[in-house]
Amino acid sequence: MRRLEQRILLFSVFFLSLCGIIYELVLGSLATYLLGNPVQQYSITIGFFLSSMGLGSYLSRFLTRDMLKNFIMIEVALGFVGGLSVLILSYLFSFSATYYMLHIFFLIVIGTLVGLEIPIITRVLKRYGSLKDILSNVLSLDYIGGLAGSLLFPLLLFPFLGRMLTSVIIGALNILVAIVIIIKIDYENRRKTDLLIPMAVFILLLGMAASSDRINTILQKRLYYDDIVFSKRSRHQEIVMTRNDADFRLYLDGSLQFSSVDEYRYHEMLVFPSLAIHKSANKRVLVLGGGDGLAVREILKCRDVAAVTLVELDPAMIDLAKKNSSLRVLNGDSLDDPRVSVVVGDAYAYLVGNRKKYDVIIADFPDPHDETISKLYTVEFYMLLRRSLGRGGVFVTQSTSPLFAREAFWCIHHTMKKVFGSVTAYHVYVPSFGDWGFNMASEGAPLAAPVGGPAPGLKYYTAETFRESLHFPMDSSATLTDINTFNKPVLYSYYLKGWKYYTEM
């Protein structure tokens, strides 16, 4: 019997460590999703969590009686607080000051409870053997559990369950450990009612898990003003589509990608200047990003385009663009056009292995709001991209707002000038986004402004509107910045600095 009890307690160490690391990861990923800047958010999360674990370890010295019963209470408290943490933080996100104070609060509370676990369980296990053997077993299982949690979260839990359901299930696992210990192990001052609170919390968390889709819908309605018509968590991002009368919108990880009311302004100005400047017939065009098919829709309006290759990271986005009726109407079934080849994969990896030459390359990436995306705007990435341009080839990339994120926009411009012989900055007003900018580059002499009439079916772009877009007012004109590189990714800092001012107004 004593051997069975020892095994139960040792296996509980594995699950405690697994739960603890997942709480840390889920809170860090939530802060990154809501606030951006993963380096900062994970640094703050890890710092507060680890220091709170140290506080918990220190406080454990003051618990001297009923050790196993105290351990059970800690597990119930941890399961309850940890299981509800993502739900509460997501619900209160609209109150930004409250959100961050609560984020720190949950880190401290959960970290302290996690820090209490190992010292207490070690003292309980002393009754089953020598301290030397107990310590080696506890620490071994603690580290193995940490590894299991760090692998389970990114590979299985987060992609398939999402943050909220993951936190609820992990909270229920903490409670389950307490329930098993109550049932299987004898301890001091045991009462028949000891199971009531753990079972009540366990049933509550299971009910939340069963209702997770409904709860997620409620939470999303607080983040999006319009009716949600589609919502899916893919392996790479959260995809949400909303509708308000004729206004159909796509959000990726909470960031607006387009509004059907005015997206044509953005996509025409992204696509047509480069196509108009490159004069050859039978153009081969490469599109990086843009899995919604809207940029490809514009490219196919040009009669001299022979082939389009689209490289999109998220297969769920391609599936949506091809099968969702609203998005198909908007993109004109562009991804099913025989001239279009779709490659599912990372843009950087594609360029590394690519040996083809393209006349025009168009980058329709998300804004550089973190270091991961910022690598797609570095000197190293542009050097790799330049290798895929044919003779006289033209490259263009969306470059965020020169008004709202002035330093970020011009950082992209200056970074491209380190690689290309000629770089042209231009911008357009898109009502849903505001003033939005692009940078276009080539190897040779300065790019000549396009001439001639627009392609059939355009609503905004002409040679004249492009010439007007080359002028920048004083509040968005060129400014000095550092160059964005892999080693020194300054771009996302410029981006967050610029947008923070406008989001706090």
What is this entry, summarized?
The chain is of the alpha/beta class and 505 residues long. It has 17 helices and eleven strands.
How would you sum up this structure, described in words?
By secondary structure, this protein is an alpha/beta fold. The protein has 17 helices and 11 strands. The strands form 2 sheets. A 7-stranded mixed sheet has the order 7-6-5-8-9-11-10, with helices on both faces. A hairpin with a 4-residue loop joins strand 1 (227-233) and strand 2 (238-244). 44% of the residues are buried.
- Biggest sheet layout: 7 strands, mixed
Distance from N terminus to C terminus (CA atoms, Å) equals 65 Å
Average pLDDT works out at 90
Helix content bin = 55-70%
Low-confidence stretches: none
* Radius of gyration, CA atoms, in whole angstroms: 27 Å
**What order do the strands of the largest sheet run in, or round the barrel if closed?**
7-6-5-8-9-11-10
Q: Approximately how much beta-strand content do the residues carry? A: 15-25%
Structural classification: alpha/beta
Global shape: elongated
